[in-house]
Amino acid sequence: MSVLAITVIPVAAAILGALLAVNTRSSPAVVSAVQHFAAGVVFAAASAEILPDLMHYHAPVATLTGGAIGVALMLLIMQIEARWKGPVGMVVTTGVDLIVDGLVLGIGFAAGAKAGALLTVALTLEVLFLGLTVADTLGGAKARVRAVTGTALLMLGLPLGTILATPVSHLPGPIVAGFLSFGLMALLYLVTEELLVEAHEKPDRPWITSLFLVGFLSVLLLDQLIG
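RESULT FIELD:
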């Protein structure tokens, strides 16, 4: 199965999230639980797969350059989110974020099939929640068709990013290291400044907080099981 075909999985999850948003109302505790678990999964995928692969390359300049670009882009997205409020701002920043996620997924598969598989799981959980949020912003139950259709169209940014990252595996080692560093920074930003920040805006409980560690441990176990 091609990397592009695999993006169908997270895209389908986002559409499922949109359908849930227009037909049901999830409690803040459930949303926070999903965010904690997804954050643990993403963090584990970054630390267990992307980071070790990056350390195999001896390309400090490329690592610094790719990492710096990743940090700059994430900070730019954060500034756009802070200054451009409302549905339009949400759509624009989400679209950029999804393209970056697609790049990270493609980079993950460039690092190896196992890394790509774990990132697919991580990003599927992320965009499931993202689908809930976007559909609610676009009208929710009051505009079901617009909310679901708009979410589905927006999720096309994910395969677009993956297409852009596809040639990475054929590039020289130092350039691959730069892309891996970029992807690592993007994933760490996703965990620390998006998923966990939003999760802690809701009422917190010990069992909800523990799901971050459950998600992390789940990826470690999956990583060992698929060898």
